Amino acid sequence: MKAYETVIGLEVHVELATKSKIFCGCTTQFGGEVNTHCCPVCMGMPGTLPVLNKKVVEFAIAAGLALNCEITRNCKFDRKNYFYPDLPKAYQVSQLYLPICRNGSIDIEVDGVKKSIGIHEIHMEEDAGKLVHDPWEDCTLVDYNRCGVPLIEIVSEPDMRSAEEVIAYLEKLKLILQYLGVSDCKMQEGSLRADINLSIREVGATEFGTRTEMKNMNSFKAIARAIEGERKRQIEVLEYGKKVIQETRRWDDNKDTSFAMRSKEDAQDYRYFPEPDLVPIEISEEWLTEIKRREPELRDAKMLRYVKEYEIPEYDAGIITGSKNLADIFEATVALCNKPKEVSNWIMVETMRLLKESEQEVEELKLSPAKFASLIELIDAGKINRTIAKEVFEQIFKSDVDPKTYIEEHGLGMVSDDGLLRSTIENILKENEQSVSDYKNGKEKAFGFLVGQTMKVMKGKANPSVINEILRELLSKV
Amino acid sequence: MEITDQTIEYVSALAKLSLQPEEKEKAKKDLGNILTYIDMMKELDTDGIEPMSHAFSMKNVFRDDVVTNEDNREELLKNAPKQKDGCFMVPKTVD
């Protein structure tokens, strides 16, 4: 078999986090009863006119600037014509001739190797409705709630060569867009959707092979599997002396293979023309500067700052900033208790463990910074010991309890009372004469045992450093 | 300007129209006339003139990102020839 190289370019559709749709005042909220987020404008009723949501333009520009693009200062919309019931107007308002952003790039890293992935363009457009097949009537049911939700389509250059590079690109893109607040990028809700253009060629060839486009992948794992599956399929086709056909294929993750969606005879002719219902957009220098000024701190900068300012390990900073939600919780908690290393440790160990146990995604994590910070202050003030703190943290994680109230109600406050601990330890020494003599004979292990026994009697609530102190003192007198 | 049978068939297929032979002839003639008329533009010297992107000299017409509409499903579905469970019902589409 010859050696082949995989060439991949991505078209990523991102639903913008605006409150209202791109051309009308309907809500963009996900879910909701079918066809309750619609009006005559997004339903394409005759005589209605679209009016552009300013926030859509600002989000598209913000994304373009963060992805190092040139911004098209004079841009406009075009009409893409096609008959399909997911679009009630029989056309989609999109941008063909003057997309709002062009010629950008982002840097990715795979196995320590850095690489720049080109961004060909970003354009604004409206999302389509949702079609559901009704098996009883053997017809299609249409819900237009999503129709008119603003999208940006980010088109990469064919710069990726493996599934790992594609995932790294998508992860990076997702974080940038989430930090910008441009989109929540929830793949399971369809607010980030990737189409994969893939072709293969012999290693060393300069011309691209014929590509296919794959749709319908709703997780990074499915994307990786789809790339692997399609790469193998194309190699097989070529090895059998046949040709790859340029077509759109639908990935079926259950069957682990892709299927052709449209035949080539049904070639599309979208007859784009300038959208007459919308006037052009002119982006002034002032507007651009204002949007750039409002750009929040992005992931890479945040990570560096955590290492420098908070002195937390780079690995930990990477994990925390790897999720905007986690970084938000971290920063809000640090702002309240001013103990970044402590907060970071609780996130890295206990939070990660509890997330894994409860099979929760880190983006779904809800952890109150106020309660988190209050717990850390209680530890710091010596009110509870670490063992108890773990238990309380778990309760905050699971049931959002207030740590102070919880500790009081369950009598978990740490006992540092010298008299009480002293009499307890005296009893323990009497009951464990063997351990005492072991200790006297140089067995340090016996000391740990005695601490453990004391803690057991105190139901875990004793202050370990006070136990240590008293125990050493009493043992020296034996 | 001459319009071929092939063009008429292609354009009508895109528009999902099935035309009778006499309708095709008429469309050929009408479209030919329209294009001939528009071709007159070529007689003008447009060197150095920036193309218009819109017939109005307006730009930057925006609305603020505010939700103003409420559920209006009942009213909207009155326009549906067929409906089921709050959805528009259309012939089966292959996806």
List the helices and strands and how they pair.
The complex is a heterodimer of chains A (478) and B (95).
Chain A: E1 4-15, E2 52-53, H1 54-66, E3 70-71, E4 74-75, E5 78-81, E6 91-94, E7 101-110, E8 113-126, E9 130-134, E10 139-143, E11 150-156, H2 163-180, E12 192-202, E13 212-215, H3 220-239, E14 248-252, E15 257-260, E16 273-274, E17 281-282, H4 285-293, H5 299-309, H6 314-321, H7 324-337, H8 340-357, H9 369-380, H10 386-399, H11 403-409, H12 418-431, H13 433-440, H14 445-457, H15 464-477
Parallel strand pairs in A: 13-14
Antiparallel strand pairs in A: 1-11, 1-12, 3-7, 4-17, 5-6, 5-16, 7-8, 8-11, 9-10, 12-13, 14-15
Chain B: H1 5-14, H2 21-39, E1 62-63, H3 73-77, E2 83-84, E3 87-90
Antiparallel strand pairs in B: 2-3
Describe it:
The complex is a heterodimer of chains A (478) and B (95). Chain A is α+β, with helices and mostly antiparallel strands. Chain A folds into three domains: 4-286, no CATH class; 297-409, no CATH class; 418-477, Orthogonal Bundle (Arc Repressor Mutant, subunit A). Chain A contains 15 helices and 17 strands. In chain A, strands 3-7-8-11-1-12-13-14-15 form a nine-stranded mixed beta sheet. In chain A, strands 6-5-16 form a three-stranded antiparallel beta sheet, with no helix packed on it. A two-stranded antiparallel sheet of chain A has the order 4-17. The radius of gyration of chain A is 30 Å and the shape is elongated. The termini of chain A are far apart. The mean pLDDT of chain A is 91. Chain B is mainly α. Chain B has a domain at 5-43: Orthogonal Bundle (Histone, subunit A), CATH 1.10.20. Chain B is 36% helix and 8% strand. Chain B is built from three helices and three strands; from the N terminus they run H-H-E-H-E-E. Chain B has a two-stranded antiparallel sheet. In chain B, a hairpin with a 2-residue loop joins strand 2 and strand 3 (87-90). Chain B is flat. The chains are: A alpha+beta (478), B mainly alpha (95). The interface between A and B is large, with 54 and 36 residues. Strand 10 of chain A pairs antiparallel with strand 3 (87-90) of chain B, so a sheet runs across the interface.
